[in-house]
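Teaching assistant here, posting this on the class forum so everyone can see the example we discussed in section. The complex has two components, and the goal was to see what a joint structure prediction looks like when all of them are supplied at once.
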Amino acid sequence: MVNVQDHTITEAKESMPATGFQVVFREFLKDKLATMSLVFLLIIIFGAFFWAPFVDKEALMQINLRTIFMEPGEGGFFLGTDQGGSDVLGQLVIGTRNSLFIAFSITAITMVIGVLLGLIAGYYGGLIDNIIMRVTDFVITLPMLMLIIVFVTIVPKYNQFTFVLILSAFYWVGTARLIRSKVLSEARRDYVNASKTMGTRDFSIMLKGILPNISSLLIVELVLNLAGNVGIETGLSYLGFGLPPNVPSLGTLVGYASNPDVISNRWWVWLPASLLILILMLAINYVGQAFRRAADSKQRLG
Amino acid sequence: MWKTIVRRVLVMIPQLFVLSLLIFGLAKLMPGDPFTGMITPQTDPNVIEELREKAGLNDPWYVQYYHWIVNAFHGDFGDSYAFKDSVSSLIGERALNTFWLSLFTVLLVYLIAIPLGIYAGRFQNSLFDKGTVLYSFVTYAIPTFVLGLLILFFFGYKLDWFPTSGSVDVKYDAGTWGYFMSKLYHLILPGFTGAILGTTSVIQYLRSEVIDAKTQDYVKTARSKGVPMKKIYSKHIFRNSLLPIAAFLGFTITGLLGGSIFIETIFGYPGMGQLFIESLGQRDYSVITALVMLFGFLSLLGSLLSDIIMSIVDPRIRIE
């Protein structure tokens, strides 16, 4: 008797279309490059976060005249040393950790702001939508990069938290716009109307009804935003307007290349960080595209 | 048509107003004023105070804002204390360089992107198409400064084919052929960097546009009346796909302005983006304020331009 029941259950499972993470899983199974990107990303993320606490931060901050610009392998420095005589590999590990952490923070904050505003604008429509969208449209046309740089230079007591807040104040607009356009059509669906007639509160409908239905879009947006934020943070740090000097970023290492001697003769100082940023961006974007395909049944490979 | 344009321009006015208020507020938050640079241990604080009073720095903020806006409309943004020159003449000099770089970049973007996008769309799933898709994926993901540095490193330093900084060789006089060639020579590396990054969206858009066009009625009609395939692509589809691309122009300009900060810094190109970074280093706030205002105005103008071209090209989005 028990056997028969088991049998029917497995059969029922097989006939059901793949849902949720099954789709994502199948998509990654089909696309070897996406799987490799994901594995690579996880290795980098876990590697950086677990290795970073073991790096001697004091030694990196000190200037050691005897070890200036050592080539890779020389004096026990696997990736050589920079103009201050500090180990490049150690800075690379700490920089990766900091850059990823900052990018995660900005992504989290901008996603929360963007999703909430997008939900409210798309769900209520009318005047509320109009106001939120006018503000969004305005922020999008601002010269964001310049304003961020100006804010970074004039904010008193500048540290990594203010940096995250300044960037988040600008970069929520893209998400808000996207979510709003999706919610606008979703909020006119039958299940939302049914919920309304049953007297469910608006915020319940938004968070428990609509939000799960646009979750696939959210994941794609999350991953692509993460890639964008890694690029923005490292770029600003490269220019010298990113993370404060006591918090080295991947961009800080690349920034040493503004010295003509470093860029032409000391490639080991800036090239590993540049290539790491490039590979990170490619991997995150590739994973994001796999998610996007999984979210759209027309584009699926698996 | 005109209604749309007039309405779109009217929308821009409050945007400009808010932008100017925002930037004025930022300028007030910046430490110091134009006279801070003149203070030496010998200066009498009363003299500075008198100068401040004369310049209207002790007036209420709305009076100061009014003076600032009136002066800005006359092209007067005050003086730069670091460069000892008026801000407008300082920016004017650099703006021309940025203009040439942007023009060169936009030309390159369309020269590269149009054939790539059209051929990739025409021969979908061919090796060429796959290569183009890969190219646009990589250029989409790569940050401006990483691409710029790699290009500078290989073509500027390792191969030594191109100059690594500046906008023109000092040994030539303005107006000669050598001067022009030297300018062009200096534009190549920064121009290609900007162009490679700019092609991504144009290629992707054009490619999907051509793929969509294949199944559309006007193409079927052309085929059934016996127009050769080559002509359908070069005349019918090309024209139809190109119009929306023209509308991208405004956004391309906006994107270029943002990118110019990185590209001009990396290639040591004396344009507005580099001036911005230099002024920040010297805390030259009058220049910074003027540049942010100018870039903000140009981005608004860019999106206005895009919307106007779009409404000319596509009658469906006109406001009646």
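For the discussion questions: The two ends of chain B are 8 Å apart (CA to CA). Residues 265 and 274 of chain B are 5 Å apart (CA to CA). Think about how each of these relates to the inputs above.
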